[in-house]
């Protein structure tokens, strides 16, 4: 029976749609994401952005161009989830190595191509000192590798052997007693872990059925490079050191000028980078600010140093530690060495800065200009009166941090300590006079009567 005219029109329309779809498929690009260098903070946001752009462009596939010795397991786990959850076909091109965290990312891809002489495996986790991590961490990584291999249709036993050298392998050609499994390109092809070998990416795409399509490489943006730089342990430690040093300077001098501003800027950069890298959240930032407020209340409102000040310091340190450690999952509880080492390094540097401030800041001309404002037109008579204060005793009228005002011989005088903190009302004695700078020290008596000021 001849098809009716409407049926024929419908068949032609369907054929046209199929042909149009094929044409559109040939025009769809292949997006390339670079997984090179160390797997560290900043990579997650970059990969997420690249996959979003590929999805919006209707990409035919996303290629992970892998060449890494590994890095942070928590970052690799997040990238692995992005790859597994992608609706776009994914390809990992190993050129030349996918080691440790890089192996986990690679196994998440739908297809794997490897360059000649490539290697894939050696995924056991290590701690901050480079030693093998705890059994808990090893077990977690073993499970991640197994689950990833199962999801992508590969032998899960081999994935586990890349993490734990004690596991037996049924393939006698791969048996290396007491060693982690690392597959060469030829071995990966033989056991079905690699789908093709190729010296270049275009050849790999050709062998995997994506040849001839336009290639779009997504590079890291300047902001992602900046976040990666700022969240490195060394730079994070430096920012914490400068930030806390600047705050200490402002508290000691009562002068929130350039130095204190640099400190606030460093702390802002630290928390900003950690927030963008999805390590810090608003709660940790608010905790740090609350700690500063409590410490300021202790210093400027409540005499002495007690519970409020200690609570403020604890809140600040806790917020810094949480921001460095990120979300505490099974991967991060055994990776606390990195934030601990980072904090320890920052506090060593901060201790040196504080010691230098306490030793040299009170006697520096720059500091005296900030807090004492010595007039250049002081007369010899005024200088003589200042020198006569040597040995005079009195009491602090304001809190000396280390500069302030004291009552000496029934007159208000601008004074400065040798770096110590002296509360208002405490007894002081002039121990040194340098020009118009009067240096005082706390005496044994704690509270002098307001009229008892003559020496």
What is the compact description of this entry?
48% of the residues lie in helices and 18% in strands. By secondary structure, it is an alpha/beta fold.
How would the blueprint of this fold be written?
Layout: H1 5-27, E1 30-39, H2 43-56, E2 61-71, H3 73-84, E3 90-99, H4 101-107, E4 111-114, E5 119-121, H5 135-151, H6 156-161, E6 182-184, H7 185-190, E7 196-197, H8 201-207, E8 215-218, H9 222-230, H10 233-253, H11 258-276, H12 282-300, H13 307-325, H14 337-360, H15 365-371, H16 380-387, E9 393-396, E10 403-408, E11 411-417, E12 426-434, E13 437-447
Parallel strand pairs: 1-2, 1-8, 2-3, 3-4, 3-5, 4-7, 11-13
Antiparallel strand pairs: 5-6, 9-10, 9-12, 10-11, 12-13
Helix pairs in contact: 2-3, 3-4, 3-5, 9-11, 10-11, 10-14, 12-13, 13-14
What does this structure look like?
The chain contains 16 helices and 13 strands. β2 (61-71), α3 (73-84) and β3 (90-99) form a beta-alpha-beta unit. It is of the alpha/beta class and 455 residues long. It has helices spanning 5-27, 43-56, 73-84, 101-107, 135-151, 156-161, 185-190, 201-207, 222-230, 233-253, 258-276, 282-300, 307-325, 337-360, 365-371, 380-387; strands at 30-39, 61-71, 90-99, 111-114, 119-121, 182-184, 196-197, 215-218, 393-396, 403-408, 411-417, 426-434, 437-447. The longest helix has 24 residues, at 337-360. Mean pLDDT is 81; it is low at 16-25, 330-334, 368-383 and 446-455. α9 crosses α11 and α12 packs antiparallel against α13 (307-325). Helices cover 48% and strands 18% of the residues. Strands 1, 2, 3, 4, 5, 6, 7 and 8 form an eight-stranded mixed beta sheet that branches.
């Amino acid at each position: 029976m001849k098809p009716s005219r409407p049926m024929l029109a419908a068949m032609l329309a369907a054929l046209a749609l199929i042909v149009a779809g094929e044409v559109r498929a040939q025009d769809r690009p292949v997006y390339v994401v670079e997984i090179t260098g160390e797997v560290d903070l900043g990579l997650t946001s970059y990969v997420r952005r690249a996959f979003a752009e590929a999805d919006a462009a209707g990409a035919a596939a996303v290629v992970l161009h892998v060449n890494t010795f590994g890095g942070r397991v928590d970052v690799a786990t997040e990238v692995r989830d992005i790859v597994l959850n992608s609706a776009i076909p994914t390809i990992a091109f190993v050129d030349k190595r996918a080691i440790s965290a890089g192996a986990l990312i690679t196994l998440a891809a739908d297809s794997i191509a490897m360059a000649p002489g490539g290697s894939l495996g050696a995924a056991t986790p290590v701690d901050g000192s480079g030693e093998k991590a705890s059994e808990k961490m090893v077990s977690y990584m073993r499970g991640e590798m197994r689950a990833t291999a199962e999801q992508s249709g590969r032998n899960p036993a081999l994935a586990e052997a890349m993490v734990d050298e004690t596991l037996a392998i049924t393939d006698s050609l791969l048996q290396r007693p007491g060693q982690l499994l690392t597959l060469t390109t030829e071995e990966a092809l033989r056991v079905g872990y690699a789908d093709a070998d190729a010296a270049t990416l275009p050849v790999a795409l050709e062998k995997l059925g994506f040849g001839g399509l336009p290639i779009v490489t997504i590079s890291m943006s300047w902001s992602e490079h900046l976040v990666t730089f700022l969240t490195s342990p060394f730079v994070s430690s430096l920012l914490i050191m400068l930030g806390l040093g600047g705050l200490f300077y402002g508290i000691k001098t009562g002068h929130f000028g350039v130095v204190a501003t640099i400190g606030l800027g460093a702390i802002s950069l630290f928390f900003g980078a950690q927030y963008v890298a999805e390590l810090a959240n608003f709660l940790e930032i608010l905790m740090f600010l609350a700690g500063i407020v409590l410490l300021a209340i202790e210093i400027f409102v409540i005499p002495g140093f007690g519970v409020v000040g200690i609570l403020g310091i604890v809140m600040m340190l806790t917020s810094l530690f949480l921001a460095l450690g990120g979300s505490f999952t099974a991967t991060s509880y055994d990776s606390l060495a990195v934030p601990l080492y980072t904090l320890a390094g920052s506090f060593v540097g901060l201790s040196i800065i504080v010691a230098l401030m306490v030793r040299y800041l009170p006697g520096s001309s720059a500091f005296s200009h900030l807090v004492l404002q010595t007039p250049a037109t002081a007369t010899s008579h005024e200088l003589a009166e200042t020198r006569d204060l040597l040995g005079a005793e009195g009491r602090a009228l304001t809190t000396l941090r280390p500069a302030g005002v004291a009552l000496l011989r029934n007159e208000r005088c601008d004074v400065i300590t040798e770096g110590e903190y002296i509360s208002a009302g405490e007894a002081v004695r002039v121990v040194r006079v340098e020009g118009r700078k009067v240096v005082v020290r706390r005496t044994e008596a704690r509270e002098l009567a307001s009229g008892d000021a003559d020496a």
